[in-house]
């Protein structure tokens, strides 16, 4: 690993190694207290954030490193100063760059023109850190994550794409259930299908909610992605049958509910499910830090 730009860039061995390391760091954080001694990480954020910013900042500190946060007060990435110049300058001081951007091309530019590892903390195409935390969470609940049957319900977005890649590489089964016209990008789906064939996974896409039956976990996300100006009223009728509620959980026979947060309670998921015994949302949130720490240790050790 030189960077973490997308889950699809990882081999199965690399992905399993990251999950295993994350479990070790979570179980014995003291052992890694000085893993990043003398290391400085710059975080570039074009988007607002709770879990990503806090989990990276505190996680880097727990590893003995130093974190510097930069927001858009310095101007949008690539506007005030080119991405290439930004990356080259940061590489003079920082040991790694964590970036949360609107355009994935900005992430790629940082990796191309910088001389230090770059971690994608979210772009319009991918959310690899979230997917790592999600599969870490599932691996804590199931003995063999490759046997997990995961259903994603709702809008096909960057989280969906990263989950598809992760499930495919791990050899797991994933069903993506979206309203017509709201599936993940077709090119991404084709790449995920290729990975699933390579590693023994299974990926199914459908609009039929009957396909929810027989899954271990149901995952959903907001119906409108961050930065999308579409009014909720414009899509609510189309998406309302895809709300995750107690009836859908029962129909699936699922023992786990997952959401990357923030959630619109009472919209894509009900309070009963969000706060119910099947909900893994806080375990996922905590595991963002452990998964990201595993990436940092791997890239910087």
UniProtKB/TrEMBL annotation:
GO molecular function, one term: amino acid binding
Listed pathway(s): Amino-acid biosynthesis; L-arginine biosynthesis; L-arginine from L-ornithine and carbamoyl phosphate: step 1/3
Ligand binding (L-ornithine): 158, 221, 225-226
GO biological process: one example: L-arginine biosynthetic process via ornithine
Location of the Aspartate/ornithine carbamoyltransferase Asp/Orn-binding domain: 147-298
Top-tier EC class: transferase
Source taxon at top rank: Bacteria
EC number: 2.1.3.3
Record's keyword terms, sorted: Cytoplasm, Transferase
KW Transferase (keyword) present: yes
Localization: Cytoplasm
InterPro entries on file: Asp/Orn_carbamoyltranf_P-bd, Asp/Orn_carbamoylTrfase, Asp/Orn_carbamoylTrfase_sf, Asp_carbamoyltransf_Asp/Orn-bd, Orn/put_carbamltrans, OTCase_ArgI
UniProt cross-references to Gene3D superfamilies, sorted A to Z: Aspartate/ornithine carbamoyltransferase (3.40.50.1370)
Cellular component aspect of the GO annotation: cytoplasm
Chain coiled-coil ranges: none
Keyword Glycoprotein: no
Binding site for carbamoyl phosphate: 100, 127-130, 260-261, 288
Entry's family note: Belongs to the aspartate/ornithine carbamoyltransferase superfamily. OTCase family.
HAMAP family: OTCase
NCBIfam families: orni_carb_tr, PRK00779.1, PRK14805.1
PANTHER family assigned to the protein according to its UniProt record, in alphabetical order: ORNITHINE CARBAMOYLTRANSFERASE, MITOCHONDRIAL, ORNITHINE TRANSCARBAMYLASE, MITOCHONDRIAL
Designated name of the protein: Ornithine carbamoyltransferase
Species, as recorded: Shewanella salipaludis
Lineage: Bacteria, Pseudomonadati, Pseudomonadota, Gammaproteobacteria, Alteromonadales
């Amino acid at each position: 690993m030189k960077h973490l730009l997308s889950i699809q860039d990882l081999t199965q061995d690399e992905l399993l190694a990251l999950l295993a390391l994350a479990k070790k760091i979570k179980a014995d954080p003291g052992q890694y207290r000085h893993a990043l001694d003398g290391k400085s990480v710059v975080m570039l954020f074009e988007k607002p954030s709770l879990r990503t910013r806090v989990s990276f900042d505190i996680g880097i500190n727990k590893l003995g490193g130093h974190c510097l946060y930069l927001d858009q007060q310095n101007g949008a990435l690539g506007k005030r100063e080119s991405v290439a110049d930004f990356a080259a300058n940061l590489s003079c001081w920082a040991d790694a760059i964590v970036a949360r951007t609107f355009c994935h091309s900005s992430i790629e530019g940082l990796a191309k023109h910088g001389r230090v590892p770059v971690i994608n903390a979210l772009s319009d195409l991918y959310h690899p850190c979230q997917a790592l935390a999600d599969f870490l969470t599932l691996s804590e609940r199931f003995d063999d994550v490759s046997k997990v049957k995961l259903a994603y319900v709702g809008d096909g977005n960057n989280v969906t794409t990263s989950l598809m890649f992760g499930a495919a590489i791990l050899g797991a089964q994933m069903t993506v259930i979206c309203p017509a016209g709201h599936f993940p990008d077709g090119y991404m789906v084709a790449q995920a299908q290729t990975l699933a064939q390579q590693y023994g996974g299974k990926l199914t896409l459908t609009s039929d909610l009957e396909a929810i039956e027989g899954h271990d976990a149901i995952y959903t996300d907001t119906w409108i992605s961050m930065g999308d100006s579409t009014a909720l009223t414009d899509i609510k009728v189309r998406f309302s049958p895809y709300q995750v509620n107690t009836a859908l959980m029962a129909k699936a026979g699922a023992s786990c509910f997952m959401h990357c947060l923030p959630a619109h309670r009472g919209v894509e998921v009900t309070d009963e499910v969000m706060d119910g015994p099947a909900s893994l949302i806080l375990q996922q949130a905590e595991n963002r830090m452990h998964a990201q720490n595993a990436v940092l240790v791997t890239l910087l050790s």
